[in-house]
Amino acid sequence: MAMSGPQFRPLVGFLVAAILVAATAAPVPAAAPTLVCKTTVQVDDSSFTIELRPDWAPAGVERVLGMAKSGFFEQLPFFRMLPNFLVQFGISTSAEKQRHWQSQGNIRDDPRPAGVPFTDGILSFAGYGTDSRSTHLFITLGSQPGLGHRQWEVPVGRVVSGMPV
User: Fold this and answer.
1) Does residue 158 contact residue 165 with C-beta atoms inside 8 Å?
2) Which compartments is it annotated to reside in (predicted)?
3) Element (H, E) at 159
4) Neighbouring residues of 94: CB distance < 8 A, sequence distance ≥ 6
5) How far is Cα of residue 135 from the mean position of the Cα atoms in its chain?
6) pTM
7) Rounded CA gap, 23 and 20, in Å?
8) How many angstroms separate the CA atoms of 120 and 85, rounded?
């Protein structure tokens, strides 16, 4: 996935759509006993769709949905862009929203799902140690075999359309 150009300039692209508000539930194929939530995220003049996977990361998806319900993702900037690695977001421009989610504390680590590598378009929380996930999320740019080996590096979803994936 080549995510470059004006739609992914750090601090210029904004997540405008709240993830839950635009989310739709669709059955997960075959054996998975859960739902997949999809949302469209508006970035400048384009958009992309993220599929949240509670079967991969139930605690992570629950946090993303809670943040979306509260409006945390509205007008949220991408603050870190590393070409061929990731684009990161999760620091609210609203001090009140950021304080609220900091007061909720970090979330526990989800078990890593088997067979889900960090390939192009994977959505995950950033972390730094056991049970350290809070509000920072990232989307991978290309295959990242160095990710997914620590307990906090768990995919919560993936980009399914709007970007070459």
Assistant:
1) yes
2) Nucleus
3) strand 155-161
4) none
5) 10
6) 0.77
7) 5
8) 9
Identity of the amino acid at 5 = G
Amino acid letter at 61?
V
How deeply is 46 buried, as exposed, middle or buried, from its count of CB atoms within 10 A (0-12, 13-18, 19+)? middle
**In order of start, what are the domains of the chain with their CATH numbers?**
6-161 (2.40.100.10)
Which residues pair with residue 89 across a beta bridge? 78, 137
Which tens digits make up the pLDDT trace of 102-159? 999 999 999 999 999 999 999 999 999 999 999 999 999 999 999 999 999 999 999 9
Backbone dihedral angles phi then psi of residue 52, each to the nearest 5 degrees = -85, 140
Which class for 125: exposed (0-12), middle (13-18), buried (19 or more C-beta within 10 A)? buried
Residue 118's identity, in one-letter code, is F
68: alpha, beta or left? (left if phi > 0; alpha if psi -120 to 50): alpha
